[in-house]
Amino acid sequence: MSIVGEFVWYDHWTNDLTAAEEFYTRAIGWNTQRFGEGPDAYVMWAVGDTAIGGIGKVPREADGRAGHPLWVAFVAVDDVDATAERARRLGGGIRTPGTDIPGVGRFAVIQDPQGAVIALHSSIQEGSTVPADRVKPGFVCWHELYTTDHEAAWRFYSELFGWKHTSSMDMGADGPYFMFRHADAAEQAPFGAMFNGARTLDVPPHWLYYVSVEGLEGTLGRVRDAGGEVCEGPMDVPGGRIAPCRDPQGGAFAVFSHEPPRVP
Questions:
Q1: What is the pTM of this model?
Q2: Who's near 131: CB < 8 A, 6+ residues apart?
Q3: pLDDT tens-digit profile of 18-40?
Q4: Dihedral sign, Cα of residue 256, residue 134, residue 179, residue 110
Q5: CATH among 3.10.180.10, 3.30.1300.20, 3.40.605.10, 3.90.226.10 for 7-123
Q6: What sign has the CA pseudo-torsion 84, 132, 69, 259?
Q7: Which of 32, 40, 96, 251 reaches 20 to 30 Å from 90, CA-CA?
């Protein structure tokens, strides 16, 4: 299966890198690894020995204020620069142009036409893969786009990454919950969804990433103990239970546990 169009890496951009490392290792249970030497070494999140992402400094706002922490996923592409230019032609924007990562590959950061940020990545390393089982604890298992126009967003992403629609659920005022999969994945294997949640909640368009955990209640307890916030839920969903959360610096994420619904 081609890796192009797959989510392959997850960076957390924040203002206090040390505090973020302490929070997520405690709340989620990730290990960390260092890429490079010295105090400026890139800190990577790891599930066991498998690195899945890292921590970076969030850029400042245009007026000089500290930027708002966020998670940014990287999607695999064949050609970072050509894909970024295609995103621009499709109505999006280029936040960070193609940049080399010595010994690793190349990346760029783009935004979709509604303003949600996502990144592109091409690897020069052998054996770049995605987890065989996204529901395994510690891995990001679901990718959810809060947008203001899911139809326009879908035209952009399906053209850019070749994603395929699987099914939709009626979300009332939010419109359809529009689920999608990798082009080579089975019809019944979606890995994300998009819906008009940014419009109904009156928030900027953004991606929300769900981390699979073992034991939702215990995880939420650690989130609170580490200074984070459980924003809603827990809620029952097909296949398990979820809860959107916020870290102490305001970064949004969600957790998913593959467990049966709670009996009222």
A1: 0.93
A2: 50, 139
A3: 999 999 999 999 999 988 777 77
A4: positive
A5: 3.10.180.10
A6: positive
A7: 251
